[in-house]
Fold TetR family regulatory protein.
Amino acid sequence: MKPTRLTREQSRDQTRQRLLDAAQTIFMKKGFGAASVEDLAAAAGYTRGAFYSNFGSKSELLLQLLKRDHETTMGRMRSIFEDGEASRADMEARVLEYYSQVHFENKCFLLWVEAKLHASRDAKFRVRFNALMRELRQTTTDYIRAFSERVGTPLPMPAEQLALGLIALCDGVQFFYSSDPQSVPGEFAEAVLAGFFARVVFGAARGD
């Protein structure tokens, strides 16, 4: 049986995905600055020319990696709200499970760290990166509001402030867990993240 021949569009998409996957591994191992276009292309099994046929620069490829991870994160957040009949207890449990485990499952954390460093040095990249970060903050804000309305829990502070605090807390816990897992083991990190929601977001309603 002959293998199915890919269309030009499918072949191009396959090439892009392989370059993205290879770049994710290389960036996390060597760092964005130390990785060359040749490194990325070779790791994916392509030439330098193939790289530039798909991406204008390393910065563009990094941004596409972040967007891919961002879309995955948004999909996971949406799944929390898919069941319109879920009880308040179920909703709380889903949110706690998601945020208490995020440090284990965030495989692209170092990419975001690399991107923040790159954004501090590259004004052009900074504009596009900040737009993505604002989208993340706005989406998180919207979900916090939606959650509050669904479960009938008044927020202890504006949703925008909670969203910023939550993102910063997740980043901070992830950083300590990644760099010093002996003093900040997974169970400790999980307790911090779960405790934020249990007491700050749910606290008023639970009366803890």
